[in-house]
Design a protein that fits this description.
With about 550 residues, this protein is an alpha/beta fold. It has a domain of about 300 residues. Helix content is about 35%, strand content about 25%. The protein contains 18 helices and 26 strands. Strands 1, 2, 3, 4, 5, 21, 22, 23 and 24 form a nine-stranded mixed sheet that branches. An eight-stranded parallel sheet has the order 6-9-10-11-12-13-16-20. A three-stranded antiparallel sheet has the order 17-19-18, sandwiched between helices. Helix 6 crosses helix 8 and helix 10 runs parallel beside helix 12. The radius of gyration is 22 Å and the shape is globular.
Length: about 550
């Protein structure tokens, strides 16, 4: 039992905005009160109390991450090391931290739940092994489906009901939590050396399946399966000049359906080539603000080293051509693909300067913080452990303006950031880092401090410098266990994995078995992830 006493509590999901009150935990859950000699008290007087952070979109486990780690050995030589101790296992930080380091780094800035946003079903077993190896935080994952050729074949034939059964089977086979759509149709086309840039045109190899049809079908199926999280969508034409038109068209396809727009920063550009690329965040925010069916994460960038890693193979090849940097490509049989390109964002680079501004603009122009969340699409835009830098920029307009002055002069007439004076409050920070992502993911036990919620609490020193404040929590409590104390990790625990169990017709197996024999290198029987591989599974029944 634990009592957190006298802190200023920010719990926006329950309408608590900086009130001095106690937070009590017993049996791993928030309770109304605790009493008895065994109850510990943490004196949080003068400190700020938040629900544990929730990252709605990150990349922390799986084959692609290991590919990225292998491609950046120089990073591991220079990155900070986690040396084995009674409390910590050895690990390496940097742009692609290893599993142990990932858990420590997230906990070390107040996060308790992360969503791995892109998992091929074929490699899900390995992904879960890495998630199991990642300490402290609870985990969920989104399964890649927008380029699964078995699914596209059914959409081509107009068999939407069977497509729904198939998708539900794949989701449960992967022990996933949600459905991810990356460049719908574009990764399939990449196997032919093509892409899918126009939403209304058929995908290479099909006559009726278009990106628009894939998007609409996935959104419909996710709703019909009653999944807690809407379709998690990486739009077509990621990173390209003028992609604002594709993004707006995609949003129109989704009208009437729930959707989460991933790393929106990479989809908010005007212009028709790299020389005249500009921000179109005002146009995007205007549409987004008027359509409450949508949520999004920022995918903000920060200057410095990163590793771009995405299932969007065509984009990664283009980035390789543009930069001449190292490039790797993976093809995951009938399901998806992947590309990896190490990258460095530079303030002197005109395109990078616009990208940096766009991420902040979206967070400042989208009115409702319950619908736009703090991410860097780790490790694509920057590492997750740099979130406090972004928080500081959101909370301090003067600091932002000082940074804007360092941008190239040519960038200033292509962005709207200098005109924006909005400053986030602590309550809004609690929303975009915890309460909002938890709501978007459909995790009612996360992101708040009401009775019955998971006992996940972050306690920070009150500091005018938000970067310093949020970089080092004074305490982190996970499931009632004190993990971080006085800024140091004192104990580690195993987090749980959140999994959905959709309802489907078992006869779909009869349809799939011969297709596996024909098209897959893995047998049908060995394909699904066994439950014993899932650490502390928390299963959400979808009925």
């Amino acid at each position: 039992m634990l009592r957190i006493k006298g802190g200023r509590v920010y719990d926006p999901a329950n309408g608590v905005n900086g009130e001095v009150r106690d937070v009590c935990i017993s049996g791993g859950r928030i309770v109304s009160d605790v009493d008895g000699p065994e109850a510990r008290t943490i004196d949080a007087t003068g400190m700020v109390v938040f629900p544990g952070g929730v990252d709605v979109h990150t990349h922390v486990a799986g084959g692609a991450l290991n590919f990225a780690r292998a491609m950046t050995p120089e990073n591991h030589r220079t990155a900070a090391k986690f040396i084995h101790s009674p409390e910590l296992r050895a690990g390496i930080g940097g742009t692609t931290p290893t599993t142990f380091a990932t858990g420590y780094l997230y906990a070390g800035q107040g996060y308790t739940t992360v969503n791995e946003a892109a998992v091929p079903v074929l490699s899900a077993r390995h992904t879960h092994e890495e998630l199991r190896d990642t300490p402290i935080v609870d985990k969920s994952c989104c399964v890649l489906m927008a380029n699964n050729e078995l699914l596209l074949d059914l959409l081509e034939d107009g068999e939407l009901e069977r497509a729904k059964q198939l998708m539900a089977w794949f989701l449960w086979a992967a022990k996933g939590y949600g459905i991810k759509a990356v460049n719908p149709g574009g990764v399939t086309a990449w196997k032919w050396g093509k892409d899918a840039k126009i939403l209304s045109e058929p995908v290479e190899g099909y006559s009726k399946v278009t990106p628009a049809k894939i998007i609409a079908s996935l959104a419909q199926i996710v709703d019909e399966l009653k999944l807690p999280h809407p379709v998690h969508l990486h739009c077509n034409n990621l990173g390209a000049p003028g992609n604002i038109s594709t993004t707006l068209e995609t949003m129109k396809v989704l009208e009437g359906r729930r959707a989460h727009m991933a790393h929106l920063q990479f989809h908010a550009y005007g212009g028709d080539d790299w020389h005249n690329l500009r921000s179109e965040t005002a146009k995007l925010a205007e549409y987004f603000n008027a359509h409450p069916n949508l949520t999004a994460d920022a995918g903000a960038i920060l200057f410095g080293d990163a590793v771009t890693i995405t299932a969007d193979g065509p984009w990664q090849h283009l980035l390789y051509q543009l930069t001449g940097r190292k490039w790797g490509n993976l093809d995951v049989e009938n399901e998806t693909g992947c590309g990896v390109v190490p990258y460095a964002y530079k303030p002197s680079n005109l395109v990078n300067a616009v990208q940096w501004a766009v991420g902040l603009e979206l967070l400042l122009l989208i009115d409702d913080p319950w619908r736009i969340y703090l991410t860097t699409d780790h490790p694509n835009g920057a590492c997750f452990w740099r979130y406090p830098e972004i928080i500081h920029m959101l909370m301090n307009a003067d600091f932002r303006r000082d940074l804007i002055r360092k941008l190239p002069e040519k960038a200033l007439n292509r962005i709207v950031l200098p005109e924006l004076n909005r400053e986030y409050t602590l309550s809004e920070i609690a929303i975009i880092t915890s309460a909002g992502p938890a709501r978007a993911l459909g995790m009612p036990q996360k992101g708040h401090l009401g009775v019955g919620a998971d006992g996940d609490v972050a306690i920070f020193n009150n500091d005018d410098n938000a970067e310093r404040m949020f970089a080092y929590p004074r305490y982190l409590i996970k499931g009632g266990v004190v993990i971080v104390e006085e800024g140091d990790i004192r104990k580690t625990i195993d987090g749980k994995e959140l999994v959905v169990r959709p309802t489907y017709d078992e006869s779909i197996s009869d349809y799939l078995k011969p297709l596996f024999e024909q098209y897959y290198t893995m047998s049908f029987e060995n394909y699904p992830v066994e439950m014993h591989r899932i650490e502390g599974a928390d299963i959400h029944q979808c009925e």
